[in-house]
Structures are given as C-alpha cells and as structure tokens.
Design goal:
mainly alpha, 162 residues
Length: 162
C-alpha cells in the first residue's frame, strides 16, 4: 500500500511530505520550511499540492527504483521550471533575458522527458492491442465451442460465463 501521508484526497501528513523532501529534494524542503514561517497559508497550499504530486511517486520507490528516479528527476525539473517562470513574471526587463536563458534548456529537457513518456505509453498501448487481437482471434477460432458451451449453460440452468 501507499505509506501514510501520501493518500490523494485523504488526510495529509505534513511531516511525511517534509521527510520525503528532506531525503530526496533538500532544497525544496528548505524552501517549504521558510514558507511555513513567512507565509503559512501559502505553505499549506504548497504542501497540499506537493502531497498530490508526490503521492504517485512513493509506490515506485520500492517497486521500480529506476522509474522512481526518473519521475523524481521529472518532478524536480518541473518544479525548477515553475520557480523560474514565477521569477520571470516578477523580474525586471533586464533580468528576464537571463531567466529565459535558464528556462530554455530546462524546457528542452521537459519536452524530451514528455516525449519519452508518450513513447512508453504508445508501446504499452501497442502491446495491449496485440494481446486483444490475439484473444479475439483465439475466440474466433473457438467460436463453435464457445457458442455450444453457452447454449449448454443456458439450457441446463448453469450459467457460468459467456
């Protein structure tokens, strides 16, 4: 199951979120601690958002460490892009160019990661289609048997499965 503190829609355990961040993304944990002191309401909103974002990562940590590492890196990248984007809106005209230069390679990485995820998803869907085609072909080959079996179930009052 999912460890306590990471149940989407359920009660949130702030200590668990902070502990996870301290171990896996210390800079974000420090940022949250500062936010907690300076702007408590914003801290609560940020914590809730992090709880939703990090929840799906946790089961991967032990089930698929490689995928966990990839998703954690993706989370950090997305967080950095969000942070720079916020900085850009608050920056002076002179600072905006430098921020754009920082954002560009991050956006390239983000794009590459999303493309890779879509490729993985497409491969999975293609595998599912092949399995479905195989099952359909197998059932078609056994059509007469399946119909006879169902007829027997219906006429003997033993409906098991169609």
């Amino acid at each position: 199951g999912r460890p306590p503190g990471f149940r989407p829609g359920g009660p949130m355990n702030p200590e668990r979120v902070l502990d996870f961040l301290q171990k896996n993304y210390p800079a974000k944990a420090q940022e949250l601690q500062q936010l907690k002191v300076q702007r408590p309401e914003e801290y609560r909103r940020a914590l809730a958002a992090l709880n939703r974002q990090l929840g799906p990562l946790l089961p991967l940590q032990s089930a698929d460490p490689q995928k966990f590492a990839e998703r954690l890196a993706e989370f950090k990248l997305n967080d950095k892009v969000r942070s720079l984007s916020r900085s850009y809106t608050e920056a002076s005209v002179a600072q905006r160019s430098a921020i754009q230069e920082q954002l560009k390679p991050l956006l390239e990485q983000q794009f590459q990661r999303r493309q890779q995820r879509e490729r993985e998803r497409l491969t999975h869907l293609q595998e599912m289609v092949k399995k479905m085609e195989s099952r359909l072909n197998e059932r078609e080959g056994k059509r007469a048997q399946i119909i006879e079996h169902h007829l027997e179930e219906l006429t003997t009052g033993q409906e098991l499965r169609w």
